[in-house]
Write a structure and sequence with these properties.
Layout: E1 2-5, E2 18-20, H1 23-30, E3 36-38, H2 41-72, E4 76-81, H3 95-104, E5 114-116, E6 124-133, E7 136-146
Parallel strand pairs: 4-7
Antiparallel strand pairs: 1-2, 1-3, 5-6, 6-7
Length: 149
Amino acid sequence: MKIILNQDVKHLGHKDDVVTVKDGYGRNYLIPQGMAKLATPSAVKVLEEEVKQRAFKQEKLKKDAESLSEKLANQSVTIKTKTGTTGKIFGAVTTLQVANALKDKGFDVDRRKIVFNDEIKVVGNYKATINLYKGISAEIDINIESEGK
């Protein structure tokens, strides 16, 4: 029996693979669990079209990420925060603050894609990595300054 996998199945294949399995395994386990569907000729044609469209979208996302990475290279943001007399920050600088500082400069970056190289707890200069796409990232400088009273 030929089936199309709806998700990755260990020791069988990855999502959208067309594989051959024994009739009982496909009919009694994979299809009822929603892990696969029958590989009819029309289902295979639909799958091929979906894969083409998905590849086109992924290529566009990759190009957008590469252009944003080039623009973000060597950028720096300054964040003012409340500190104690020793320069220690009350709390910590968050990715949301960095994302808002980048938005003020005209870059729309999701805060979940920002990763700090070091924990930011003291006034100073730091680096953060922004993971834009698989294998595409940009590094920015973050300057933490004490907020005037």
